[in-house]
Specification:
Two copies of one chain form a homodimer. Chain A is of the alpha+beta class. Chain A folds into two domains: 13-75, Winged helix-like DNA-binding domain superfamily/Winged helix DNA-binding domain (Arc Repressor Mutant, subunit A, Orthogonal Bundle); 80-237, Chorismate lyase, CATH 3.40.1410.10. Helices cover 27% and strands 32% of the residues of chain A. Chain A contains seven helices and ten strands. Chain A has helices at residues 13-28, 38-45, 49-61, 111-117, 157-165, 183-188, 232-237, and strands at residues 65-68, 72-75, 80-83, 100-105, 125-134, 137-147, 171-180, 196-206, 209-219, 223-227. In chain A, the strands form three sheets. Chain A has a six-stranded antiparallel β-sheet, sandwiched between helices. In chain A, strands 1-2 form a two-stranded antiparallel ribbon. In chain A, strands 3-10 form a two-stranded parallel ribbon. The longest helix of chain A has 16 residues, at 13-28. The A-B interface holds A 11, 15, 18, 58, 61-63, 79, 81, 85, 88-89, 169-180, 183, 193-194, 196, 198, 205, 220-221, 223-234 and B 11, 15, 18, 58, 61-63, 79, 81, 85, 88-89, 169-180, 193-194, 196, 198, 205, 220-221, 223-234. Strand 10 (223-227) of chain A pairs antiparallel with strand 7 of chain B, so a sheet runs across the interface. The first copy, chain A, binds a DNA duplex (19 and 19 nucleotides) through helix 3. Chains A, B: Keywords: DNA-binding, Transcription, Transcription regulation. Chains A, B: This is GntR family transcriptional regulator. Chains A, B: It comes from Streptomyces tardus. Chains A, B: InterPro entries: Bact_HTH_transcr_reg, Chorismate_lyase_/UTRA_dom_sf, Tscrpt_reg_HTH_GntR, UTRA, WH-like_DNA-bd_sf, WH_DNA-bd_sf. Chains A, B: GO terms for molecular function: DNA binding; DNA-binding transcription factor activity.
Chain lengths: 238, 238
DNA sequence: AAGTGGTCTAGACCACTAA
DNA sequence: TAGTGGTCTAGACCACTTC
């Protein structure tokens, strides 16, 4: 019986554990199936529960597992691809987009938003909350920020978006980064606060400057963001 | 003296801790400054070290902190924006792109890559390793996969890329998702294995099908992916 | 050698879900 | 009410960097 690599293993236990679990997931489990509970799994692999959890956390981060308190740990389906590059000449809320408008409010602009919109810190903005689902599961929540420059406060969400549609859109700028879900976003996405999310920030540009900013928060565990062909498709359309 | 919210706090300790630390970071520390060590910090806030670490981990995930074993925890600069949407009519390795070619090998295609390239599992492919830096720090590492269909094995990296440049590029398809760094990527990015990364997969399309696939791995803690204007800029160029 | 963050343990209790 | 994952503790040792 070979000693294998147990004598000199620079890799930590949870790393090997993760590999072992990942292979078991491929060979012995099917999508949606529920795993043994954490205490049993830890005992089965001969590690402390905290160590087992470290491996599960990474697998959840990679979209292989889904854990729900009070329920259990289940095997995730492959991530769903969600398109985040709609036509570059369309405003949020124009017919056919993937979002469902929820509500509107009129808070002071967060510092970062104010900067993107070219406003002073604390200026009032319209904020329209929207959500997006795939396969009947919520995958993203978004806030559309519009300056209250020309449109008075207290409008309906649809009215706010409608004012954008009248304007001439010059282009969009988009960024993607990793974040952790704030309490409100987490609730809407059916996750715990702090869950990893992909934050997509889009700036809508007109000749006069930035007319709107959207901050969309996608569940990182279940989503794969897709950017459709940025060359041929447009050439075909034009 | 008010009891504040200590009587009924559904939020966990590490969540409050994170907020407290985040505010301290803004007001009492400067970029690059080194924080007190974890044992001292934990004592200062009256929590166990594991709880303190849970808060630090989230702040690191959000790009606010950087922790290095044997050194300490430092305050991170804002994330750097890296453009991941070069001109949609250019191949990898054409003059002026942001990457530095490292080496080439000729492995069997991983299952996922084979599928994207329309190959059978285990078919041989060229794999060109490249890296990308910003502010003298490595921010991404990439593998360019090219089928060995027309080009024999054992080529130099530059020769492999050069064969692509002769072909007519019809378009690109790009996806972004969250991953965790494999051992090799982690080493190149100066991170520990398992570190969170943004994985950008690009498919290069010709009339004949998929000519190449790139898998780029960006440090999620230090990078903000940017997608330049997808409308106006091209109109101006054309 | 001293000090840092990284890993690991063995326990406890809590919040939540479902029968 | 029983069972799940989520939080928290107090300790130990290890890997790495720096002096």
């Amino acid at each position: 019986m070979a000693t294998t690599q147990l004598e000199a293993l620079p890799e930590p236990k949870y790393w090997h554990l993760k590999t072992a679990l990942s292979e078991a997931l491929d060979s012995e489990f099917t999508v949606g199936q529920i795993l043994p509970n954490e205490r049993d799994l830890a005992a089965r692999y001969g590690v402390a529960r905290a160590t087992l959890r470290q491996a599960l956390e990474q697998l959840e981060l990679e979209g292989r597992l889904q854990r729900r308190r009070g329920v259990g740990t289940t095997v995730s389906p492959p991530r769903v691809g969600v398109d985040v590059s709609p036509a570059p000449d369309r405003w949020p809320g124009e017919p056919g987009d993937a979002w469902q408008t929820e509500s509107a409010s009129c808070p002071a602009a967060p510092a970062q938003i104010a900067q993107l919109l070219g406003l002073a810190a604390g200026d009032s903005v319209h904020a329209v909350r929207r959500t997006r689902a795939a396969h009947s599961q919520p995958v993203a929540t978004e806030l559309v920020y519009v300056p209250t420059r020309e449109l008075p406060a207290g409008q309906e969400a649809e009215a706010i978006l409608a004012t954008l549609h009248l304007r001439d859109l010059k282009g969009q700028e988009r960024t993607v980064e990793l974040g952790s879900a704030k309490a409100e976003d987490a609730r809407l996405l059916d996750r715990l606060p702090g869950a990893p999310v992909l934050v997509v920030t889009t700036r809508y540009l007109t000749e006069q400057g930035t007319a709107a900013v959207t901050v969309a928060t996608y569940r990182a565990d279940t989503c794969r963001l897709t950017f459709g062909d940025s060359g041929a498709m447009r050439l075909l359309a034009g």
